[in-house]
Amino acid sequence: xxxxxxxxxxxxxxxISEIMSFYVREGGLLPAARFHGVLHRAIVQIGISPAIGxxxxxxxxxxxxxxxxxxxxxxxxxxxYIETEDHVRVIDVIHERRDMTQCLSRD
Amino acid sequence: MLWEWxxxxxxxxxxxxxxxxxxRSMHFIPHPDxxxxxxxxxxxxxxxxxxxxxxxxxxxYLDEQAFAHxxxxxxxxxxxxLHQHRERQALKSRLINSIKSGPAGFADDxxxxxxxxxxxxxxxxxxxxxRDER
Lengths: 107, 134
Known about the structure:
The structure holds 2 protein chains of 2 kinds. Chain A is α+β, with helices and mostly antiparallel strands.
């Protein structure tokens, strides 16, 4: 299986660390470890098949090639990424309801 | 409601732009005897009124779209569209800033191992802090 390597942007890395420390503070190690596992699985999945993500925001924000993929069923974060020729670049991990608008889910 | 629209040759749209979405904002009216607070109270909705001239075709389009999106009042629809626009721009600028921030490294097994170790260290630190308080 030839998976594309995943590169994290500086801000994406920061967001992931913030989410992890939020879960550690609020719920202890268990939810943080769960989020960690689910995020790992999602990122591996994105590397294997980058076309899996939705292109809904690409049109709305006029950013071609932008895709996003839900971290897991039980977590509200979405991974935003861009696929290039030889790698996948994770731009940000964003909370679906707190950071994003709900306007598109209403459309 | 429609008669509000037919004022003069221009159309008057009342935008009731709530500056915040506090649920009780509409019900909280301070008594005039109350001393005015030095800082403006965030719970009082500040509303501005905007008079907007629209050509006939745009007005027809606006009414049609407002109806299609389930608004009785076209002005409400304008407010909603403005909110949507602002939120989309906020998301877009967040993503663009992240693209500008540059690559940080590969998200490989090593990275995820370190991420979990960081969380464990923070958890241990928090537990130790809680124990010391006791």
